[in-house]
Amino acid sequence: MSFLDTLPTPCLVLDLPTLKRNIARMASAIARHPGVTLRPHMKTAKNVQVAALAAPGGGAITVSTLAEARTFATHGFRDQIYAVGIVPAKFAAVAALNLQGAQVKVITDDLDVARAIAAFPGPLPTLIEVDVGEGRAGVAPDDPLLLEIAAALGPRFAGLMSHSGHSYAGRSIAAMADLAEQERVTLLDAAARLRAAGIAVNILSAGASPTALYAKNLDGITEMRAGVYMMGDLLQAQLATHPLADIAVTVLASVIGRYPARGAVLIDAGALALSKDRSTEAAPRDWRFGRVLDREGNPTLGDAMVTRVHQEHGEVRAAEGVTLPLDRLPVGARVRVAPNHVCLTAAAHDRYHVVENGALVAVWPRINYW
Amino acid sequence: MSFLDTLPTPCLVLDLPTLKRNIARMASAIARHPGVTLRPHMKTAKNVQVAALAAPGGGAITVSTLAEARTFATHGFRDQIYAVGIVPAKFAAVAALNLQGAQVKVITDDLDVARAIAAFPGPLPTLIEVDVGEGRAGVAPDDPLLLEIAAALGPRFAGLMSHSGHSYAGRSIAAMADLAEQERVTLLDAAARLRAAGIAVNILSAGASPTALYAKNLDGITEMRAGVYMMGDLLQAQLATHPLADIAVTVLASVIGRYPARGAVLIDAGALALSKDRSTEAAPRDWRFGRVLDREGNPTLGDAMVTRVHQEHGEVRAAEGVTLPLDRLPVGARVRVAPNHVCLTAAAHDRYHVVENGALVAVWPRINYW
Hints:
Two copies of one chain form a homodimer. In chain A, strand 16 and strand 17 form a beta hairpin. Chain A is of the alpha/beta class. The first copy, chain A, has helices spanning 16-31, 48-54, 66-74, 91-99, 111-119, 145-153, 173-196, 209-214, 234-238, 271-274, 342-346, and strands at residues 11-15, 37-40, 61-63, 79-82, 103-108, 126-129, 157-161, 203-206, 223-226, 249-259, 264-267, 291-293, 305-309, 314-317, 334-338, 351-356, 359-365. Chain A starts with 10 loop residues before the first strand and ends in a 5-residue tail after the last strand.
């Protein structure tokens, strides 16, 4: 009997060779740009063992929560960017890590916060976030605020960062390369304004997985941040950032009910185990709440997908015009669900069951919550 | 300074008087029906202290995961229904609890599973799930399978259960009462067929929060299951199951960026802290990813809502035609987000910060994962 039949379901399965392949692909993409380093974003994996592969030797990383910052610092990943706008109530937690030997950099786009950082007694190196077109956070590169914030930060100003999150709307390698170039030019323009005012800009941190993979020219950028590339998902596979076979994380689930009259089965992976993310809704192929693969992770189930979710129930049907092979799906049978958006699906679970060549080789915990 | 300014954000806040009011309302709704007991569903709260209020004295409860079953059994809640279709791989875990003194009942609608239950050496009392119109799981009441499954279960057959999940699509008290009556009649019809075949049907378990609250007649039903009523959310408030003021759970968040040019702020509660549930999408009032209230939980912010989420970012804007009071929302300011669907939002967090009369009175852990 395979361990795939005995793991408690629902649970996360992480294919180690796929993870390593994804990490190697990004590493060589970045290696094409001399002087540019990769600062992997650990918000997707949230795991120390994955960080050791993506940022070998305690390399520079990006984090999205204080919980990640603390755990990764404890495990030797000292050079971090905490890439969510900082608030004064979180200063002390970051400064405490820095007083213990970490170099956690925070980010802001707010003048009042910059002044509070300058006045704070503990070490808080700070990047200013620049909006390069995503329209989420950041100062516009031509906004006078940019110079005011840098001046307010004084010696705590450590550089500029941007997030090209809008690159996930790209649908071709050329579109992603264009967005990467737009981000580069915008960030360099902001840096030029600061440098003209006599302010040194040491870090120029850009990125998102699509732009990190497909940028043609990163001259002037010092580092790229990217995270989802390690794991992959059904949206990424349609952005051409990786093939379908390079989705490293799936949810193992059990069939809990079989309904021949409507050509459906229920599985024990529902809204909690998969998330309600519908990232593929606007993609060329909409996989509803996830694509359903067989126990081994192969697409042999008639393009099956999770069509509906309740808290602990997922309804599985085949794609239109295809029949679900119900004879292979008795109650108790195991299937794997490839996620729409791996960051959200992985976050529903507390551990990875790590698989290599058909064997369970490790269980790795995730750093969930805040 | 209020504890609401010092709790780490994002985090869950549970208003204890509101919780108690919601629990009391359901208890009196059920008390109108002699012979019917309430078996609270703990899948929303997933917490022992809440169970002690909803099912006092270690009363009967419903659970949705083995993790819940184990923890509640350990804390004296012995009479449980594990209300997700059982699979053979989970038999041993349930039987182990029952051998330690619990009475955890499982559910199925599958003949092969029923046979496996009958052949299993440990104690597995089983309810057959009947489809009363939801179209998710369950045997149709007139399907010959019903008698076959009951016969296969033999002495392990403990009764019938159904879920009127489609009652959440109801928009009036009359509609919910009608669905409750339809569920009652369907379940009694199924029981009559079994009884005519000489099979005793001791438990007739029905429910969902809307039908439990508004059923007019529950004659013949032995118990009602309901869970979300304890906590409340923006969808429930529009189903007339409770007023807006009876949402007991909110997410406390901090403003992390302010963007006057687009009349928006960012908060540190995004897709992970709120979930991507969009239950209000089809409701009369669509609150996108949640309604934004002030620090005290009052709706004084111009009908603000979370319009967009990224993993750790939520974008807050006012309703159309209304202006967000940006002067009251500097970076660091605290707000509360009322959830679209509390089951999903609460599941993103590992604990409740319990508040009573403006004071933090306890921190209660949740039983997350499986």
